């Protein structure tokens, strides 16, 4: 989750799912952004070429070793403007019919902020979800992530930790100390990420990838 857009949350979500899989964990990736899904762009796939199998529900296709589900496998690049009750209906259907199998980790990429998708996720799966927060160290992002932490705590939801992305110096450790949220690590600003989007091999050759592997270890408790 992130409190603002543009913090690199989707890239971190994809890299984290790939890192957990590389560590040997059975991993899935769910793109919960129904309006503007973009995990498939990072992965470099045409989602319409990865149709789920239907067998008493739908079985997500395997992409780069991870189970993958996104509304884009049905909508392609067409916009899917949803709001209110429509978001709730789509979300419940995705939860009800998707058969993930025996996963050890399911990474869920959510839209920025705290909207219908997040509230539905916390409502229907609150006791099974741990929020991983992604933020940059910009002044606006700092203030926003503090508010998000307090909102999650007030709702009684679990926060697994915070990742500081595109950082030049660690500025979020203080927020973590003050709130009791674990500081999972700093992913440095890396121009190779933008150049690597669309190619998993190029993404894995970046400096950022090594930091994500370390964050995956901390999440797994290694």
What this model shows, in words?
The protein has 222 residues and is an alpha/beta fold. The chain has one domain (9-220): P-loop containing nucleotide triphosphate hydrolases (Rossmann fold, 3-Layer(aba) Sandwich). 42% of the residues lie in helices and 19% in strands. It has ten helices and nine strands. α7 links the parallel β8 (158-167) and β9 (183-188). α1 (9-22) packs across α10 (207-220) and α4 crosses α5 (116-125). The longest helix is centred in the middle third of the chain and has 16 residues, at 139-154. The protein is globular. The two termini are 23 Å apart. The model has no long low-confidence stretch (mean pLDDT 88).
The oligomerization state is: single chain
Radius of gyration computed on alpha carbons: 17 Å
Mean pLDDT, nearest integer?
A: 88
How many E strands? 9
Task: Detail the poorly predicted runs.
Answer: none
Overall helicity: 40-55%
Total count of domains: 1
Mind telling me which CATH architecture this is? 3-Layer(aba) Sandwich
Shape: globular
List descriptors.
three-stranded parallel beta sheet, 9 strands, four-stranded mixed beta sheet, 19% strand, 10 helices, Rossmann fold, 222 residues, alpha/beta, single chain
Summarize the structure.
The chain has 10 helices and 9 strands. With 222 residues, the chain is α/β, with parallel strands linked by helices. The two termini are 23 Å apart.
């Amino acid at each position: 989750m992130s409190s603002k857009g543009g913090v690199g949350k989707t890239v971190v979500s994809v890299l984290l799912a790939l890192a957990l899989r590389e560590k040997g964990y059975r991993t899935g990736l769910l793109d919960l952004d129904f309006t503007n899904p973009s995990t498939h762009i990072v992965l470099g796939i045409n989602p319409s070429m990865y149709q789920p199998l239907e067998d008493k529900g739908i079985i997500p296709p395997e992409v780069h070793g991870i189970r993958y589900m996104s509304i884009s496998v049905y909508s392609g690049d067409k916009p899917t403007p949803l709001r209110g009750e429509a978001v709730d209906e789509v979300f419940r259907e995705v939860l009800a019919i998707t058969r993930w199998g025996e996963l050890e980790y399911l990474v869920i990429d959510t839209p920025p902020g705290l909207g219908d998708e997040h509230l539905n996720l916390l409502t229907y799966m609150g006791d099974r979800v741990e929020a991983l927060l992604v933020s940059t160290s910009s002044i606006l992002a700092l203030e926003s992530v503090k508010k998000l932490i307090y909102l999650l705590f007030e709702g009684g939801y679990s926060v697994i930790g915070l990742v500081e992305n595109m950082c030049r110096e660690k500025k979020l450790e203080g927020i973590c100390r003050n709130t009791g949220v674990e500081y999972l690590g700093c992913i440095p600003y890396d121009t190779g990420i933008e150049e690597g989007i669309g190619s998993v091999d190029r993404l894995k050759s970046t400096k950022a990838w090594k930091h994500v592997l370390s964050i995956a270890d901390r999440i797994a408790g290694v």
